């Protein structure tokens, strides 16, 4: 397997989105989330995973999808950014895909400055967005989250 083109594909409503496999630690069932005061709106709270407290990130808002409550059949993707571990709240996980190099188009080749999208995987019957976790939270959201997480640790 070529690690450069391995992605975990997850689902939000009918939208399929990919993350670089190298950034994903594991996938777990959704669990109760403890609200985190003063967190950004995209962070409904925190969970404890193996003794590690990490923020749960609601990425539905980033894709213009309506908000909803966490359901027992939802999943959390435990992933790492360059700054912290996060739990991404998703509807489900489809598995790992390994597209050929020619099926992956970088974001800069489509539209410069696509923010948190690295590119797309072009399959015969669909296009899957490749999500960049390091650019997901804005600098302001990151600053707010950092302050909220420090308050949680006190």
Detailed description of the structure:
This protein is mainly beta. The protein has a single domain (3-153), classed as CheA-289, Domain 4 (OB fold (Dihydrolipoamide Acetyltransferase, E2P), Beta Barrel). Helices cover 10% and strands 42% of the residues. A hairpin with a 2-residue loop joins strand 1 and strand 2 (15-20).
Break the fold down into its secondary structure elements and pairings.
Layout: E1 7-12, E2 15-20, E3 24-29, E4 45-49, E5 52-58, E6 75-80, E7 85-90, E8 92-97, E9 104-106, E10 117-123, E11 126-131, H1 139-153
User: What percentage of amino acids are in beta strands?
Assistant: 35-45%
Query: Based on DSSP secondary structure assignment, what is the total number of beta strands?
Result: 11
Given the C-alpha coordinates, what overall shape results? globular
Supply Rg: 16 Å
CATH architecture: Beta Barrel
CATH topology: OB fold (Dihydrolipoamide Acetyltransferase, E2P)
Question: What distinguishing features does this structure have?
Answer:
single chain, 154 residues, mainly beta, OB fold (Dihydrolipoamide Acetyltransferase, E2P), six-stranded mixed β-sheet, five-stranded mixed β-sheet, 1 helix, 11 strands, 10% helix, globular
State the gist of this model.
The chain is mainly beta and 154 residues long.
